[in-house]
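## Example record

The block below lists the input lines for one assembly entry, exactly as stored, with component labels intact.
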Amino acid sequence: DAGVTQSPTHLIKTRGQQVTLRCSPKSGHDTVSWYQQALGQGPQFIFQYYEEEERQRGNFPDRFSGHQFPNYSSELNVNALLLGDSALYLCASSFTAGTGFGEQYFGPGTRLTVT
Amino acid sequence: AQSVTQLDSQVPVFEEAPVELRCNYSSSVSVYLFWYVQYPNQGLQLLLKYLSGSTLVKGINGFEAEFNKSQTSFHLRKPSVHISDTAEYFCAVSARIQGAQKLVFGQGTRLTINP
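Predicted structure tokens for the full assembly:
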């Protein structure tokens, strides 16, 4: 089992550009959540996708958008990049069971630097 | 809404000494509680979780935590630390409802082990 994978590992972009980050969930998982971790901070929830729809959203502007594909993989898109968007972007996958708790497994992250 | 406060941003200890990392939370609903560890340039790894049952939870690498509902705390402990425990530790909470819910993280505690 490959676990949660993310690509690319590192990315450098210029202010105003657009970026797409990718995530493949752990085998058997159907839900993907995205988090932003600024340097020296705890991760902050961006949004969560289930059944190809955004199910929950944190306090992030509309410049942050996402998508989930039929194979459960997901993309995070950020438009009009700002210097403050520089962070480690973490993807977490889980299984939305009919009952019980869905533990989240994290990928290694994508380090985005905006210059 | 939920929030998490990690009371110490940095904790230096000597190797083989005991350690306690403190975490307090607030929530208007019942919650699940977690501790994650993040090694340099890596994603998050789950150390332990409290879902229900016994308030003393044992995790990986010899760590344990105790859920105290009256004090809304979930402190992490290890009786004897090793150099390899040097890392950032995050306390997190999620609402106690079925399915995969967003995690709310604290700011993190940097644990430094000195020889």
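The longest strand of chain B covers residues 87-95. Chain B touches chain A at residues 4, 32, 36, 42-46, 49, 51, 90, 92, 98-108 (CB under 8 Å).
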